[in-house]
Amino acid sequence: MKNSALQTRLILFLVALTLAEVGITLYIVLGDTYTFSTTQLAANSTRNGERIKQQLFSQSDRLLSDVQRDADDFQLRALFAAFRNQSDIASFRSKFDDPQNGYQQNYDLVLASNERGDLFYFSGTTVPPSVQLYTFADNAFTTAQINGEYYLIKAAEVKESRSTFSRSILGWLAYGWKLTNLFNEDYRASIGMDVMLYRPHQDFSEIIASSLGKLGDTELELNTGPELYDLYIEDDHFLYTSTLISNIDDNPFYLALATIEENAYLSFNAMEDRLLLLTTGAAFIGLLLAVIIARSISRPIHMLIDAADRIRQGEYVDTFPSHGTREVAALSGAIGDMQDGIRNREEEIQRLAYFDELTGLPNRNKFKQDLTQQIKDDFHTRKLIIMMDVDRFKEINDTVGHEIGDKLLRLIGSRLSHYFREDAYYARLGGDEFGIIMGLPKGETENDVAKGIVSHFEQPFNLDGLILDVDVSIGVAIYPDHARTLNGLMQCADIALYSCKGQHHHFAVYSPQLNKHSLQRLNLMSELKEALTAGQLSLHYQPKLDLHSKQFSSVECLIRWIHPEYGFMPPDEFIPLAEQTGAIRHVTHWALHVAIHQHVEWRSAGYDISVAVNISAIDLIDLTLPGYVDDLLQRYNVTPEKLMLEVTESAIMSEPEVAIKALNTLHRMGVKLSIDDFGTGYSSLAQLKKMPVAELKIDKAFVLDLANNPDDQVMVNTMLALAKNLELSTVAEGVEDLPSLQILEKAGCDKAQGFYLSKPMPLAQFNQWVDENALQYEARDD
Amino acid sequence: MTKNGKLLCALLFLSAPTVGDTIEVHVLQHNQTPLQRAVVWLVPDSNNALPSPQSIGAIMDQVDRQFTPHVLTVQAGTKVTFPNSDSIKHHVYSFSQAKSFELELYDGLEADPVLFDTPGVVELGCNVHDWMLGYIVVVDTPYFGYTDSAGQLSLDVPAGQYSLSIWHSRLADEPDLLTRRIDTTQTKVMTVELPTPLLPSYGDYESDSDEFSEY
């Protein structure tokens, strides 16, 4: 039932309702009708009883009027007078006994008495009844039992004169009718009921007269109330009511109106059958209606379900069931609205999923989808797939803020799509990267196209008054020359783009050579993590000579990656990659660990060698570095002064605030900091002053050719003087010959490092070197 | 009353004996009010000396479909004439024991006089006009009269022992109850009080009838 169809439920419900309704109707109507029928029967009986009572009384009145008429009769009074005055009974008798006069015929009983009540004449009975005739003179239903027979008796005074005020009574005249003669078949014919006149006695009812012929000697005990009572005579079941006819001297006469039970409910039974037929018909019609209604309700719902299903499957449904109930119409409307809502949200999601919010251009996903579609739709036509990014966008963003950076991206997008070629397809692939799909215009080479794009960025951007020169790099791949697949094309364009970064070209068109290098490069990144655990990375140590003590008191630890396939990997190649992917953190942590560990090894071997480890900008931004360093120092029980961290100028400058915070923490720990490659970056002296560095490392660019280049000598001298003023120690790297070393020594440089002194050495070699030289410097002339 | 009636009455009173005692009879109704038009008669214990009834007889007239007078008292042996003063016929009859007779439909003086010789009350009716009711009180004495509006009657009777009887058409009581013994030598005034109220009268029904207001 729980999951049964609405229609089934509805039908069941309506059927149940109809049946209940029919049942209740039948129950109530039949009950009421029965009650009504019973009540009506009772009322009918009572009414008939009253009617018969009236008839009896009218007969009584008739009898009374007869006897009164005769009592007034002059001749009859003369006869009464003759009897009284002359004791002439013969005359009297001759009048009443003569059949020709009709008294015997009309009356069952004739009685006459004198004024004192002495009966002097009686007919119709052999025994003189002991009755006082005056008791029958009123207009009540007066009866008397005479000689076992009940009579209705009416009497009248016979007066000497007829005046109302006559006081001279001659006697009384009375006529009687047998009660049994008053009840005959006529009653049954006229009222359809049987009539019984009875007198209730102590424990039986004396039936005086009855229209029921077969009563016989049946002894009955009849009730005397107005209700309907049961009466069983032989095999018949009667229902009767009783009516009081008269009650003279506590001698009541009752009339019972009896009906055979089947006859009593004859009309009721017929009606019951009709009602049953009617309600059954109604129930059947109700059932039909129920089915129709249920269908009419469930059909539009089924249609709605179907519509909802189609919506679920992503279809758009235009027509909903509009007919049916208001609720269905409302539901239709609601589902329609829901569909519209879904459609709107889908479009919004699509927009968010496939369009870049900032520029309004398609995003990377959309770009890929549409590129796939374009290839699929039109695989004959050559196409250019161009990737473009903004050079040093990160720096621009950092310098001018994200808001303006975003605005710049918007303007770039707009400049591309509105001013370059309107027929081309533009997308923002993410960050500062844009993608373009376009056919190769006739008479133009891919280089022309790329140059065209670049030329659009020669004009500076005006960002709320800020004039910004922007360079872009462009990588171009050609379908189907370079690749036929989406991924292939995008990779080719990407590789081309990346290649121009290293070559400082504004654009590059893909070539398989680029691919080879690039692929290797991409693979490297995934392999770097493995390299850390697989022991492919190692530290090489390059001694630094203390120009004051002529001792090699410290080493720079340099990371070397011997790739199992490619062999030696230059740090210049993989470190920037590691910085890009974030893997640099693991690399730095590894290097610090190994360096400290090695310092402890050397210490236990009796050599006090400070270690310098290069850290990158990413490491400085990552605030876990100070904690990690502290951890290492504690673990290996190394004094912080033995660790020198070398940071490039540019690393600090990328995010100075965070970098300085990290450097300060390290500084407070006692770790020495060194600015690497000093002089190549854009460090401001003000910032340099703020930084808690202990050492400046003069870039090898100034040192390599120091002996022969006076400009370099000026630079080096200046830098050394600067460092001295800032109370920073100095290290010169790239010392490749003795004269340079001597110049540095003379200029007051604190430490020197370079191939002239020693190349970076793997551990074993370095250890051997240490053992041979015992860290002592001996000038050599090579 | 018609001229005839008045004349007859005058004759009756004139014929009354003039010697003896005058007795005064007061008749009171049950409610102590005087009963007028009550017949009072005195029957002497010894009827030797009773004078004969007037030979001229008495008259019971029929006027306007009523017996006039309503009550006529006669000494037994008196002939009563029933003249019909109406323009229509009357059929006077009586079934009373004292006198049963019938004067079939007649006009004026067509009917013969009827002799009333048995004491008693004779109820008269008319077989044509059922409402007509009259009484002839036949008494065995010449000493009778009617009470006046004060319920009083004075009768001059020879001194002696009498039975005093009273009758009234509306009397409900048995006549015996109203019979008194009277010795006129000792009792001059007698008051009789009805033990029960009177029966309804015509006047109760026909209050504005001049003809019967006196009853």
Give the structure's gist in a few sentences.
The complex is a heterodimer of chains A (782) and B (215). With 782 residues, chain A is α+β, with helices and mostly antiparallel strands.
Overview of this protein structure:
The complex is a heterodimer of chains A (782) and B (215). Chain A is α+β, with helices and mostly antiparallel strands and 782 residues long. Helix content of chain A is 51%, strand content 22%. In chain A, the strands form five sheets. An eight-stranded mixed barrel of chain A has the order 18-19-21-22-23-24-25-26, surrounded by five helices. In chain A, strands 2-1-5-4-3 form a five-stranded antiparallel β-sheet. The model of chain A has no long low-confidence stretch (mean pLDDT 83). Chain B has two domains: 24-48 and 154-215, Carboxypeptidase-like, regulatory domain (Immunoglobulin-like, Sandwich), CATH 2.60.40; 51-140, Immunoglobulin-like (Sandwich). In chain B, 7% of the residues lie in helices and 40% in strands. In chain B, the strands form five sheets. Chain B has a five-stranded mixed β-sheet, with no helix packed on it. Chain B has a four-stranded antiparallel β-sheet with strand order 13-2-15-16, with no helix packed on it. Chain B has a three-stranded mixed β-sheet with strand order 14-1-17, with no helix packed on it.
